[in-house]
Amino acid sequence: MEYWKLVWVFVVAFLLGGYQSEGCWEIEKAALFQLKPFFPRVNGEGISWGKGNCCRWNGVECSTSTGRVTRLFLWNSCDLEKEDIYLGWYLNISLFLPFEELKSLDLSGNYIAGFIDNQDLNVLSNLKILNISYEGKNNSAPSQGWQNLKELTLMGLFGTSNIIRDIGTLTSLEDLVIYGCDVNDNLNLHGFCELRKLQTLTISNTNWNASLPECFSELTSLKYLDISSNNFSGNISVFKNLTLLEYLDISSNSFFGDISMLKNLKSLEYLDLSSNKFFGDISYFTSLTSLRELRLSNNNIEIPSSLAPLFNLSKLQILYASNNTIYNAETEMHSVDTPTFQLRSISLSCCGDGGSFPQSLNHQHDLRDVYLSNINFKGDQFPNWLLENNKKLETLYLANSSLSGHFQLPSTSRRGLSRLDVSSNFLDGNIPNEIGAKLPSLSVLNMSNNFFGGGIPISIGDMISLQTLDFSNNKLSGGIPRHLPMEFSDLVTLDLSNNHLTGNIPNWIGSLSNLSYLLLNNNYFEGGIPVQLCDLHLLRLIDVSNNNLSGTIPPCLMNTISNDSSRAKYYDSGYDGSTTYIFVDVLIKLTYFSVDVPIKFTMKNISYFYKAKVLTYLSGIDLSCNNLTGEIPHQFQHSRDIIVLNFSHNSLIGPIPPALADLSQIESLDLSHNHLSGNIPSQLLGLHFLSFFSVAYNNLSGTTPQMTGQFGTFKESSYVGNPFLCGEPLPKNCSIDGSSSSMPKNATDKGFIDMEFFYGSFVGSYIVMPLCIAIVLYINPYWRQAWFYHVEAATMSCYYFVLDHILPKHFR
Ligand SMILES: *[C@@H]1O[C@H](CO)[C@@H](O)[C@H](O)[C@H]1NC(C)=O
Ligand SMILES: *[C@@H]1O[C@H](CO)[C@@H](O)[C@H](O)[C@H]1NC(C)=O
Ligand SMILES: *[C@@H]1O[C@H](CO)[C@@H](O)[C@H](O)[C@H]1NC(C)=O
Ligand SMILES: *[C@@H]1O[C@H](CO)[C@@H](O)[C@H](O)[C@H]1NC(C)=O
Ligand SMILES: *[C@@H]1O[C@H](CO)[C@@H](O)[C@H](O)[C@H]1NC(C)=O
Ligand SMILES: *[C@@H]1O[C@H](CO)[C@@H](O)[C@H](O)[C@H]1NC(C)=O
Ligand SMILES: *[C@@H]1O[C@H](CO)[C@@H](O)[C@H](O)[C@H]1NC(C)=O
Ligand SMILES: *[C@@H]1O[C@H](CO)[C@@H](O)[C@H](O)[C@H]1NC(C)=O
Ligand SMILES: *[C@@H]1O[C@H](CO)[C@@H](O)[C@H](O)[C@H]1NC(C)=O
Ligand SMILES: *[C@@H]1O[C@H](CO)[C@@H](O)[C@H](O)[C@H]1NC(C)=O
Ligand SMILES: *[C@@H]1O[C@H](CO)[C@@H](O)[C@H](O)[C@H]1NC(C)=O
Ligand SMILES: *[C@@H]1O[C@H](CO)[C@@H](O)[C@H](O)[C@H]1NC(C)=O
């Protein structure tokens, strides 16, 4: 036993480096003590600076052979107590003189504005790796003595950066990273051309709006070049001679030109040209046979839907080419007729005529993600083989692609598939009964805007991860299936609108505890509104309009609508700095219609401190066009966030409750076409955001309040069809005894009813548009489409309902 212990001790001692067990060099220990006052927070974790072997101190690394300090990690360690430290301070470079073998130094996040230079030019002469990131405003380098640097990282610098201005003097550099630097002047891109030894160059997320100089073509050692997100412009022929490049990312700039310039870069494994202004034909990439990943999205490049020019790229795994021009190249002849690649991800969404669905994909068996939405495949059959052939498929988006036929399930289950969107096609037949059993892991299932008939499959209940279920705008009939399991309460969005569904709204919907959006409008549902809906505490939107619902409005319903805008979360970059300038990575978890969309903002402009501007979320209740009776509930304590409330076209009686004024955020309030009586409460004048207000066609009396919407938002009100109501915009002098009831509005009414609904829909869209635009910016197009469809459909059907049912009665 003793023997093994001894061996163990030796092994450990050897691993830690024999020298170090005896302690580090005294001269270096003393030097570290001198540094300590400037970097007090380096003690934060690990072994604090003070006792024992300094090679084991936090942030210190020594050579195993000589025992001398080789690396110092002093990031985020400066003395925050020091007055005005945020304005920048100067570090005495002589303090590093004793560290003769220092190779790597990380000074990031310390507000260092520059260095006090020493006469001894040999300080830092051995330094190979330096990190100067997130420092103070106006950064300057040591004037001399660091010309041997091989790796330099400059992140988050701003103001005037002399380091960047003088970059051309660091001619030994092999690896340079400049990221997120917002420096304002002295920008000299020619300096970079001096760095002939560069193998890796990153200049990304800067605010440099400049033209890339031609001399970049001389950086022929480059293997890795990332100049994404800078708004660089210029002639891409500068890349023509960089034949060693394996990685080229020039995405999100303003480069313009013909992609043929890149055809000689035969070593390329990764090429990202996304979000520029390139044009040309992908046949130029035929020779880039090392490519694994090709990203071309958001350009004007012409891409044949067959992908034939890429067939020889046997290593290609990822092809992202959305938002270009897809064309039909069926007639093109190629020497190879099957692709040699096995793709994992393909994204070709939008735009153009694809001809028939690309059969080249029939040879793919390893696909994970497929995005082929918004291409016109001219009524071709739905490619059920995609799901059959690719057992690892996770995402299948084939929305708005003019596909027809039936949707079939694969022969065995696909447990990996989590998102399936086949909306807005011409699919018909039934939704397969086994869909839940075969695709149990779906979190998003969108089959809306097709011609699916039959019933809703019971097996939907097997999809325990389901968050969004959208079957709207089909021809589904029957009821909502009775037994769905409790696990289903993951569900966030349930959209069954615009079908032929019948029966009651089931009580168990109340157990879908995460439900935020419930859209059952435009069906034939009957019976009452289940009081269980009140248990849904996250509900944002209930739309059950245009059904045959009867009974009263459960008073508690008004209190279910929540608008939890506290979901905005803010992260800084992990850098504990002053709030006055740092890069703020804002992650807003925007829960709109189901999907959590994380949005990352990088605030480049340091002069603005990001103010949390919380987006307005759409929330509301639409019960219109039913046969609801009873009074409007009188209690609204918790429902302050309702933005749209529509109870029109029912048989509601009683007064308009003054408590409606508690809905302080409301923008649209429609109580028209009911049997409401009494006065219009003057409290409603306090609704600041109101834009549309209608109480037309009721039995209201008294005078009309002059709605203004105090923020200038008010657009339209309608009071017509109330025989005992007076005041603007109705005739002011109407008598209160009711004799005028048949008199005043014979002509105006008829004209107005059309106008009213015109305005209604106009104002409806007016309200919805700004909300949506803000949100749509961040949401995938499918939700935008879903929402607009919904709004349009609801408005139109309401309109036609009125045209068909109400108008003839009144004016026959
Ligand atoms: C910088 O440090 C060196 C060595 O500790 C010291 O001799 C010199 O005076 C310092 N210079 C300044 C300006 O503090
Ligand atoms: C440089 O420092 C920044 C900030 O501490 C850090 O995020 C980055 O990873 C560092 N880079 C290198 C190459 O060490
Ligand atoms: C930074 O540099 C600019 C321009 O050179 C100068 O106007 C400004 O005063 C400097 N700020 C600090 C804090 O040194
Ligand atoms: C960027 O540069 C172009 C010309 O190269 C100029 O037209 C444009 O205004 C500049 N944009 C900014 C924000 O400086
Ligand atoms: C980006 O550069 C282009 C071309 O130089 C210019 O037209 C555009 O205004 C620039 N955009 C910004 C935001 O600077
Ligand atoms: C780009 O540069 C090449 C040669 O350097 C030249 O032939 C070509 O005309 C230039 N293109 C544009 C659009 O300036
Ligand atoms: C590319 O290299 C060729 C031959 O080495 C040279 O003639 C040509 O000028 C170079 N082109 C550019 C844009 O540097
Ligand atoms: C693909 O490679 C084959 C054999 O190497 C060659 O004959 C053919 O021309 C190539 N096709 C294309 C489109 O480059
Ligand atoms: C394609 O363009 C649309 C609309 O501009 C945009 O929302 C979408 O994000 C783009 N797709 C990609 C992959 O960039
Ligand atoms: C549907 O796809 C076509 C192209 O086929 C496109 O023009 C249209 O904008 C798409 N519609 C939607 C709502 O995205
Ligand atoms: C509305 O309900 C009443 C009784 O509650 C009934 O008499 C009437 O027929 C219903 N109207 C419609 C259109 O269903
Ligand atoms: C109602 O119609 C009659 C005949 O069309 C017309 O004389 C009368 O002025 C109208 N009344 C109002 C208030 O417009």
From TrEMBL:
This is LRR receptor-like serine/threonine-protein kinase GSO2 isoform X1. Keywords: Cell membrane, Glycoprotein, Kinase, Leucine-rich repeat, Membrane, Receptor, Repeat, Signal, Transferase, Transmembrane, Transmembrane helix. One of its GO terms (cellular component) is plasma membrane. InterPro entries: Leu-rich_rpt, Leu-rich_rpt_typical-subtyp, LRR_dom_sf, LRR_N_plant-typ, LRR_R13L4/SHOC2-like, RLP_Defense_Trigger. It comes from the Eukaryota. Residues 28-63 form the Leucine-rich repeat-containing N-terminal plant-type domain. The chain crosses the membrane at residues 757-779, 786-803.
